[in-house]
Amino acid sequence: MKTPSLSGFCDLVYASPNNWENRIRRPISLYLLWSNGNRWLSKKISEMNYGDETRLVTTDIDEKCLATGLALIYPSLESIEPELSSLPSRKVWYSEIPAWRNTSGFFNEFTQVSYQSDIEPLPSKASLLTFHPFIQFGDVINNLLVLNVTNDPNIQSGKISMFNSFDKSFIANLPISTNSLTTIPLDVYNFKPTDLPVFYSPEIAGIPFGLGIAKSGRMLSLEHTHPPASLVLHGNRRAIQGKIKKSWIEKLVKV
Amino acid sequence: MTDVLIKATKIKRRAKLLLFISKRLTKAPSDSSAVISDLFPIRNSNLWKTEFELLNVLGLIVGENNQKEPYSVKFYFYNCYGKLLGVREIDIKNVGRTTVKIADLIAHKFEEAATFAVFHPTILGKIDMLGSYLAERGYCGYEYLSLGVKGYVHGNLDAVALSNDKVEPLGNSGLISRYYTVQHCLRGPAKYEFVFTNPTPKTIKIIPNILLNKKKWLAKKSFTMNSLGSHTFTVDVKENEKAYVRFKSKLYLGRPVVFRISNNSMDVFHG
Questions:
Q1: Under 8 Å between Cβ of B115 and B197
Q2: Which of A18, A114, B105, B229 lies in disulfide reach of B269, CB 3.0 to 4.6 Å?
Q3: H or E stretch including A160?
Q4: Mean pLDDT across the stretch A203-207?
Q5: Does the beta-carbon distance from A97 to B252 stay under 8 Å?
Q6: So where are chain B's domains?
Q7: Cβ contacts (< 8 Å) between A237 and chain B: which residues?
Q8: Each residue of A92-130: b (16+ CB within 10 Å) or e?
Q9: Is the pLDDT of residue A106 over 90?
Q10: B 29-88 residues with CB below 8 A of A?
């Protein structure tokens, strides 16, 4: 992931999170995948054996591969064609309890911030509704990051709309794209500590993050916001999420 | 011979499935009016501050964050042994978001608090929840050395439920111990602090293992956590050293919150 003023990293560990599920031990090839808007392009970057770790940083990756702010790392047991019409479907590093993760994040000369990454492709057309409680105050730069990956290599443009969740007032429409990491500066909107912005995208789903950068550079903050389903547990969460989204979207769209 | 091996492997995998995923990570509360919360670690010292982003969860579920009817939220504080120290009730202000300073809530009374849970009022009767329960899965913000920016982390485990003022641990544990390898290569120079909470009704023993510079897994001194207790396991990694850690326990998901402290800064994330 690439965002202004910071370098991105991805720390890969070839070790399953538990000792009983998917005990894969074969050597794998690491591929870098990125979209040129028409096809997924791939490039083999290294190999890993079981127990290895490696760190990939954006400064070591050709700029053209990070033109959308995002390139994917895919561990593969087979060689991959240099051009693909959709992302590889085989899950190589995969487990369920817990899910197999790696660490992505950002760093600068002073510090780093980590996030337990791994992303499944999102539907090409889906909506996003999320609340953003991470805006900080003082000597800090606040950004919203929206990460989207779809199987389809096309880069579709869309918008994410920002509202105040309290009075549902409209704040702004902001551009986002599929197969991209979009960085949206938030400080221009002069939020107050009691404000909770809500973001709604009718056509592009994604994983939203709050990114805080101390103006001194000495502290970074990165965490994803939750989808509405995370407000409840057990039962029919999918249906509840549908109800929550419908209720909010009806009110926000009226605005 | 190959067929026999394949058959034996399949039987072994099925047996493991039965042993390891026969239950859910957490169970549903026994009372349909219950509300759920995580157990959030507290860092409170001259180096650390903890804040909690308190949202109107009920309002967010029903689609109305302008909460005209006043209501309160209960913060339950526990020490590291899982003992309930006390409860503080916070009136939800009619605003979008309230940042709660945990130090203010525990001052003078609950200063040994190691974790807290946040319980909202029941939503039963306000909306058809289709068998679901309102859940506070939080966002805790941790500030180190007054750096002016908090590192946020969401709730880790759907740990406890509250109904009729009774707290019920929801975490499941198994009969057989299993390893959880933290999926992060520890890089020095840094101090790593792994904060565990025990969401189960049982006492849980955890055996940490460390692999330093790809040499050999070394078992470290084990620790136990009472139900709703917590423990911090610390690893110092020197410059140019790399390490992995794994934890053996009967927890279904022995996943800690990880604090990485380095160069007078810190990074917090889920392990």
A1: yes
A2: A114
A3: strand A157-164
A4: 96
A5: yes
A6: 35-169, 173-270
A7: 132
A8: bbebebbebbbbbbbbbeebbbbbbbbeeebeeeeebbb
A9: yes
A10: 29, 36, 53, 55, 57, 60-63, 65-66
- Which of B210, B202, B203, B216 is closest to B247 using CA atoms? B210
Q: Residue with structure tokens 């918008």?
A: A159
Task: Determine the topology of domain A128-254 in CATH.
Answer: Hypothetical Protein Tm1070; Chain: A (2.60.290)
- Confidence band for B39, pLDDT divided at 50, 70 and 90: very high
State which H helix or E strand residue B128 sits in: none
Cβ B130–A235 below 8 Å, yes or no? yes
H or E element, residue B10:
helix B2-20
The DSSP secondary-structure symbol of B28 reads P
Q: H-type helices in chain A, by residue range?
A: 237-254
Pick the residue of A9, A136, A232 with the most B CBs within 10 A to test the interface with B by mutation. A232
**Rounded Cα distance, A156 and B1, in Å:** 53
Mean pLDDT of chain B: 91
Ranges A23-32, B92-101, B155-164: which has the least confidence? B155-164
In which band, very low, low, confident or very high, does the pLDDT at B1 lie, cut at 50, 70 and 90? low
Quote the Cα angle for A143-B97-A193, to 5°: 55
Tokens linked to B89? 């009730």
Q: Select, from the ranges A116-120, A186-190, B120-124, the one with the highest average predicted confidence (pLDDT).
A: A186-190
- CATH, domain B173-270, list 3.40.50.11540, 2.60.290.11, 3.75.10.10, 1.10.260.40: 2.60.290.11
A and B: number of Cβ contacts within 8 A: 200
Domain edges within chain A: 7-117, 128-254
Q: How confident is the model at residue B6 (pLDDT cuts 50, 70, 90)?
A: low
Q: How many CB atoms lie within 10 A of CB A186?
A: 22
